Amino acid sequence: MSRASVNFLLDCALLAAFLVVLATTILLRALFPAPTQAAGWFVWGLGYDTWAAIHFWSTMVLAAGILFHLVLHWNWICGFVAGKMSKLLGRRVRTVESLNTVYGVTVLILILTAIGAFIMAAQFAQETPEGETLTPGARSTRIRPD
Fold it and tell me: Is 68 exposed, middle or buried (0-12, 13-18, 19+ CB in 10 A)?
């Protein structure tokens, strides 16, 4: 399969994932009441939690597709940045494919580190309804009334 065909199929998949994310976002925000009050509400036989799961996983597919899209276009991105840097610095900045790979892996590590730091910070800031702070991984021992 040619590179152009792969790019076209990936772009079609990204469009489909984006449309699912968009549709489920609108559905969850416009048709359902607040999540705490959504018990017993259904759209096409699916409840709030099921639609939220569809929304989450389609977002993950969209994120993976965007990442794959960036991988496919990484040499072009590096060339574009090098061209802009050449104009800014007033001298030619060359790209080397092996360095492009190192830059790509470094950017990926930085992105994943930032996401991990965000999740850790959210875990440390997590509170119970009574206002007590939970330690990461701890569960509240309070039994919820049904």
Answer: middle
